[in-house]
Design goal:
eight-stranded parallel sheet; TIM Barrel; 10 helices; about 40% helix; alpha/beta; NAD(P)_OxRdtase_dom_sf; globular
Length: about 280
């Protein structure tokens, strides 16, 4: 049973990644994201997930530096993720984008760097750039985001290094069963974005009943379901009480009956873009 906020999963290259972290999508750069990140670290979070497209890497970097100074933690205690955006994909442009990200974050090494979306005819060259960054020791782990099975199969035909992580939309309405099976077989760790379906599940009767039985909130039940299904999860919040509440999922366990009921909510329904039909 996963029973603490610092619990980690071991990626296929041996790097340990926290099961739980803070996502900062749409958190404004500056004070909002700085306070959110510092609050999360203060309350025990050790993983922070940002991206070039979020336009808040500078704030994340400042928050990390301040949190380390104030907490006595070392850089090795934290796991920082960022992603290369679609317009920067390609070999040389990805390498340049990475340098920009590192300058903004103020870090010498990144823990995880992801290809944000599978941009047609570019993601293989982008992946070659990530492989170079990994071999050069600039990144401890590399992966992809929003890749479906056929994208991964195509990438693996030419890749020298297998992705360590695939971050995808995942919640009770989008179970990603085929992808789960494929990634498990390839030892690619799945990670959930939008785990709460942007709040659209918080009044679901089935989830509410399970939450009541455990003395937990619906959000906590969903996040626990993520973890018990083997997904790293990174809910986004900028408010202290929600940051604390989201992480309070390590002192209970969903039964097999609970899990089956939640699994039964799947409708293959997305709130984000379709990885086979996106336009950014």
């Amino acid at each position: 049973m996963l029973n603490n906020l610092q619990a980690t999963t071991t990626l296929h290259n041996g790097v340990k990644m926290p099961w739980f972290g803070l996502g900062v999508y749409k958190a404004q750069d500056g004070n909002e994201v700085i306070q959110a990140v510092k609050t999360a670290i203060k309350h025990g979070y050790r993983s922070i997930d940002t991206a070039a497209a979020y336009n808040n890497e500078e704030g994340v970097g400042q928050a990390v530096r301040e949190a380390l100074e104030e907490s006595g933690l070392s850089r090795d205690d934290l796991f920082i993720t960022s992603k290369v955006w679609n317009s920067d994909q390609g070999y040389e442009s990805t390498l340049a984008a990475f340098e920009s990200t590192m300058t903004k974050l103020g870090l010498e090494q990144l823990d995880l760097y992801l290809v944000h979306w599978p941009v047609k005819e570019k993601y293989k060259d982008t992946w070659r750039a990530l492989e170079k960054l990994y071999k050069d020791g600039r990144v401890r782990a590399i992966g992809v985001s929003n890749f479906q099975v056929h994208h991964l199969q195509d990438l693996l035909q030419d890749a020298q290094i297998k992705p360590m992580v695939n971050q995808v939309e995942y919640h009770p309405r989008l179970a990603q069963l085929e992808l789960r099976d494929f990634c498990k077989g390839q030892e690619i760790q799945l990670e959930a974005w939008s785990p709460l379906m942007q709040g659209k599940l918080l009044d679901n009767a089935t989830l509410q009943e399970i939450a009541d039985n455990h003395g937990k909130s619906v959000a906590q039940v969903i996040l626990r379901w993520d973890l018990q299904n083997g997904f790293v999860t990174i809910p986004k919040s900028t408010t202290e009480h929600r940051i604390i509440e989201n992480a309070d999922v390590f002192n209970f366990e969903l039964s097999s009956d609970d899990m089956e009921k939640i699994n039964g909510l799947n409708e293959n329904l997305r709130v984000g873009s379709d990885p086979d039909n996106f336009n950014f």
